[in-house]
Automatic annotation (TrEMBL):
<keyword id="KW-0238">DNA-binding</keyword>
<dbReference type="InterPro" id="IPR050624">
    <property type="entry name" value="HTH-type_Tx_Regulator"/>
</dbReference>
<dbReference type="GO" id="GO:0003677">
    <property type="term" value="F:DNA binding"/>
</dbReference>
<dbReference type="InterPro" id="IPR009057">
    <property type="entry name" value="Homeodomain-like_sf"/>
</dbReference>
<feature type="DNA-binding region" description="H-T-H motif">
    <location>
        <begin position="22"/>
        <end position="41"/>
    </location>
</feature>
<dbReference type="InterPro" id="IPR001647">
    <property type="entry name" value="HTH_TetR"/>
</dbReference>
<dbReference type="Pfam" id="PF00440">
    <property type="entry name" value="TetR_N"/>
</dbReference>
<feature type="domain" description="HTH tetR-type">
    <location>
        <begin position="1"/>
        <end position="59"/>
    </location>
</feature>
<protein>
    <submittedName>
        <fullName>Transcriptional regulator, TetR family</fullName>
    </submittedName>
</protein>
Length: 198
């Protein structure tokens, strides 16, 4: 039952927002009593923490799955972006923005968890792109990893609309890729930008 509550709460939080969803809403949606929810979670904050931990796990499992497909580095970034777009397409407001605004302590925990994992993914992607001749071999990998991370999360935490956030993320991805790309990388980037599903 605990897992079912976390799964349903995660789905509702993503779709309608962490602030607007109440324990009553979750109980009503699941046709259970609020008392049942409180048996597993002493308050809404604990349920939000568990839900964000589940979402974090799911997101990084999907990213790992994309990485194992051995796309080139530029296509890999576009595939990851497409996954995020599909995962959050039903959200009206950005989940990260909501967390920062309404639950800053949980937001801090989420960001501490994300920093290491995201930076590892970004760094590996840059190293792979250099090996494939798509990114310049003179890049300072640590700096470019940090630039990209800061740009992405600055947008996520300061933009309330999920749609606007996704549009800006695409522009950041293009900006980031152009800054690193060789001529071969620019050709691959242009090919990805023509894909109607991005």
């Amino acid at each position: 039952m605990k897992e079912k509550i976390i799964n349903k709460a995660s789905e509702m939080f993503l779709k309608l927002g962490f602030k607007s969803i109440t324990m009553d809403d979750i109980a009503g949606e699941m046709c259970i009593s609020k008392k049942t929810i409180y048996k597993y979670f002493c308050n809404k904050e604990v349920l939000i923490e568990e839900s964000t931990a589940l979402l974090h796990k799911e997101v990084h499992e999907i990213i790992e799955n994309i990485v194992t497909k051995k796309h080139n580095a530029i296509q890999e970034n576009f595939e990851i972006r497409k996954m995020f777009k599909e995962m959050f397409q039903s959200s009206d407001t950005s989940p990260i923005y909501q967390l920062k605004k309404h639950y800053p302590e949980i937001y801090e925990k989420v960001m501490l968890r994300e920093i290491n994992e995201c930076n590892a993914v970004f760094k590996k992607n840059i190293e792979q792109g250099i090996e494939q001749g798509l990114y310049r071999d003179t890049l300072n990998i640590e700096n470019y990893t940090r630039f990209y991370y800061n740009l992405i999360f600055c947008i996520k935490e300061s933009t309330s609309s999920e749609k606007e956030s996704q549009n800006l993320e695409l522009e950041i991805l293009e900006y980031h890729t152009r800054a690193m790309a060789t001529n071969a990388g620019i050709i691959e980037l242009e090919k990805q930008l023509l894909n109607p599903t991005i």
